[in-house]
Amino acid sequence: MKESLGVYDYWAYDQRPKITWPGGAKVAFWVAPNIEYYEIDPPQNPSRKPWPHPHPSVPGYSIRDYGNRVGHQRQMALLDKYGIRGSVSLSTALCEHHPEIIQMCKERDWEFFSHGIYNTRYTYGLSEDQERAMIRDSMETIHRHTGQACAGYLAPALSHSERTLDLFAEVGEELFGEQGGVYTCDLFHDDQPTPVSVRSGKRFISMPYSLEMNDTIVYAVNKVEPRQYATMLKRHFDRLYLEGAETGTVMCIPTHNYQVSCPHRIKAFEEALEYITGHPDVWVATGREIADYYLAHYYDAALDSIAAQAATAGKQG
Amino acid sequence: MALNDDYLDYPYRRHGYDHERYAWSMLSERPPVTWPEGKTLAVWINVSLQFYPLNQRGVPFKVPNGMTMPYPDLRHFSLRDYGNRVGIYRVLKALAAHDITPTFAINAQLAEQTPYLVQRLKEHGGEFIAHGWNMDHLHYGGQPIEEEAELVQRSVDTLRRVTGQPVRGWLSPAKHQSFNTLDLLADNGIEYCADWVNDDMPYACNTNTGKLIMMPLATEIEDQFVMSQNLHSEDSWVTQVKDAFDFLLEESREQGGRLFALSLHPWLVGQPHRIACLEEVLSHISGHADVWQAPAGEILDAFHQAAEQA
Fold it and tell me: Residue A18: pLDDT above 70?
């Protein structure tokens, strides 16, 4: 076990090169609906119980099923209304279980990125070969069902190994070259994309995917009241928009159709979307679009800036 | 040591579900349903009447809102008892003032122990559904089937005997089930169950002895989930219930019939500082031209009728 994973360098938020998003936008805004499948009777993993109670854990299983049976279409209608294309964090077995949902996303030209096979199968305890096989399966499944070269990764149920980022970048390169495996959503250290070093040397970045704004964290972990969530989202946006005048920021709302699309919560979510998309200098994009733009325009400058900051600090020290 | 390779086997990765209980279907894609008299939103108010034993065993887990202190936890025992002695009468008054016919989900042991309460509920009018034996007799995976079969039968038989009603519906304590629960319910003549919260309309489940209908009863706008588990304010609960109602009413006008189901606990919402919040909620959901309020069994009958006409 390592003291730190060491895949990114310290890079102070002040005095970074200025980012300007397309159209002069200050904030790149993306919404990441998680479309997940939790198994009713998954195998045990010694490191983590998939359900808190003996299976079938009806309360947990059935509310997640609500997301797929009911919630997804509601959120889709809302994102359509505000001109937002979702970037789907996908339990890729859902391509087999509920292809009708995948079809509806495809019709809207949404992005799909990998969130593992099931949200009840963890990375913990997998050998390197096993984890590579799981990641490859997930990316091939997305490609088979959507034709997309999977660009992003969020480990299933945020379960990681020391090699997760390396493996994702490598499998992406093997399958799709430069198009596949370019960003991770597993790091929460920044409000801008940042370079992440993987062992293959691939140009690879971290994409801001806020856990603080994640509806499941907000509702299920932090027990926030729905209207307060709308207030949090607006405040989060306001500050990123303000700072975005200096250098472009990224705002992500990660959602779950069994949380944000419930009848008692969807109004609060709509209020926030209306507010955010009502601002002029917002680039409403997908994860891949932001990643591609950043890699093309700012990745190299970022590496230089990180090196320069380190050198300056070295001289002062 | 790495996990066995079979951790990467997915035997149920296929179209539909990883079980056979019910068919996969998206609500938005189903044919629209209309409730009686052309109404679009059916409203089901459930009132749960519960007995939390003092000598709680907590098998296989401690039920939410049960005892937490060393035995004898009189503090939580008597607070729950408050609901059946005092809170329910405030709730009944509020329901009557808004002309609401509720469904009473009652633990069979409580029904047997409190004939006065049962009599009073019958006089108010409403449908009784079985709510298991008590709040410390849970249904769970791994439970011996003989034990669970006896529990279901004892609960249903007792409630039928003391209420004189057919008792067609079931709500498990803590909404927890084993893989056998639905079969056992059907064996005992139960027609519908309120445990699964995966829809905003009724749908059919398979059992060993035919179909059983799931009548979704939202957990996440329950008074106990919002105020006792999430610790949200009373005012926030009112807002959440109103938002849910408004949204479903609007969706029912656009897409076809929907079910708004609200579950209440007299030990919680029957407190003096909360009862006005319930009254505010009931005022908000009453008196709409498109709304049809009925007990769950009647809503189920109307659902069957609508399906036949479709």
Answer: yes
> Smallest Cα–Cα separation from B301: which of B104, B99, B309, B107?
B309
Q: Which residues of A touch B229 (CB under 8 A)?
A: 223
Question: Which chain B residue lies closest to A269 (C-alpha atoms)?
Answer: B243
Average pLDDT over residues B258-276: 98
| Residue B240 CB coordination number (10 Å) | 26
DSSP string over B178-195:
-TTHHHHHHHTT--EE--
Q: Chain B: nearest CA to A136, how far in angstroms?
A: 12
Tell me what pLDDT residue A314 has: 76
pLDDT of residue B307: 87
pLDDT band for position B310 (cuts 50, 70, 90): confident
pLDDT of residue B1 exceeding 80, the answer is: no
CA-nearest residue to B23 within chain A is A69
pLDDT reading at A317 higher than 60: no
Q: Does B112 score more than 80 pLDDT?
A: yes
Residues in A closer than 8 angstroms to B13, CB to CB, are 93, 96-97, 117
What CA–CA distance (Å, rounded) separates A252 from A29?
6
The bridge status of strand A205-206 relative to strand A194-195 is: antiparallel
Residue B116's contacts (CB-CB under 8 Å, 6 or more residues apart) are none
DSSP string, A209-245: --STT-HHIIIIIS---HHHHHHHHHHHHHHHHHHHT
Chain A residues inside the 8 Å CB shell of B25: 69
CA B144 to chain centre: 24
How far does B213 lie from chain A, in Å, by closest CA?
15
Could you report the per-residue pLDDT of A222-231, keeping only the tens digit for each? Answer: 999 999 999 9
The complex scores an ipTM of 0.96
Inter-chain CB proximity A264 and B231 less than 8 Å: no
Q: Do B7 and A126 touch (CB under 8 A)?
A: yes
CB contact under 8 A, B247 and A263: yes
pLDDT of residue A288: 98
Residue of B nearest to A100 (CA): B26
